[in-house]
Amino acid sequence: MIGIMVQFQLEELDDPNTTGDGHFLMNVVDEVVDRCDGYIVDPPPHNKDYFSSQMHAVSNYFEKVSNGHQVFNNLTVLDQVYELPKSMESYSITDSNLTNAFKDALFLAKDDLIQYGNIENSIIVVFHAGIGQDFAVPLLDPTPYDLSSAYVDSEMLSGWNPYQELGFNIEHGIILPETQNHIFYDVIEDLFYGESDYCDYQIGLTGTFSLLMGYALGLPPLYNTDSGEAGVGVFGLMDQGSNNGRGMVPSPPNPWTRIYAGWENPFILSTPQRLSLTSFKKNSIAKIHLR
Fold first, then answer.
1. How does pLDDT run across 116-128, given as a tens digit for each residue?
2. What pTM was computed for the model?
3. Band of pLDDT at residue 288, cut at 50, 70 and 90
């Protein structure tokens, strides 16, 4: 897994349609202590070490939920912060423009990626400055041109010749924001007008990251992709379960997904029989008998 950090041209005059000023948060945001006097999710500085920690969190998650089958051997975040040639708003208008943000990031980082090596066997994650346009809010969104987080698949990259442009092939990748936590930005006071304590409105990046990594690993969605209607809901990563614990403790993939991925072996019943399911609760063992 290789991480690339990209930001946009600094907004000398703030663009009210996007969150932040186009650059990564590198310093403590003083206003946060007035918005929440408790635990702060994903605090700055949002630098190489921060994104490396995000990648390790997702790596540990998948190693655990796959029973050790899915292991990311190399986790690297490139040293440089690259500046994209266009504004955040311009990249957000269409899915095609969003894909262009991914392509532009790869083009800027191509020399460093080539030096890194083993690119075609790695999943590239582009971390951009700002918030993801990923969660519904109760009122009108005041920043509609934040970038959506995305799994960039081969269909989105169709018609593009990465080897000609970059010198290596890329079939897919991931686009993520630096954070999903609005508490670092003034816009949270517009989103949740009238609130004085914003501790419970924080969202972690791990859930979104894990969901999109699930797509990259070939795990099918378990919700209606046309309507957005839930299937397994909060009980599986590949549906609403990615946001369990406000995105900090995503649900494991459900049993069907783990079997599909080859991480679990199904126990197939060919005849009626009695089973004993063992569950652990604290230090005691409870047995449930099914007939």
1. 878 888 999 999 9
2. 0.91
3. very low
d(CA 182, CA 189): 9
261 contacts: CB under 8 Å, gap ≥ 6: 66, 69, 70, 217, 218, 219, 253
Residue-wise pLDDT for 183-214, tens only, equals 999 999 988 888 889 999 999 999 999 999 99
Phi, psi of 82 (to 5 degrees): -95, 145
- Residue 230, both tokens: 């839930």
d(CA 62, CA 233): 19
Cβ neighbours around 108 below 10 Å, total: 17
Question: In whole angstroms, what is the distance from residue 287 CA to residue 264 CA?
Answer: 21
Task: Select from 77, 57, 56, 59 the least CA-distant residue to 68.
Answer: 59
CA–CA distance, 15 with 281 (Å, rounded to integer) = 52
- Can you give the pLDDT at residue 178? 98
What span, in angstroms and rounded, lies between the C-alpha atoms of 110 and 226? Answer: 35
- Residue 147: φ, ψ to 5°: -80, 135
- Greatest Cα pair distance in the chain: 71
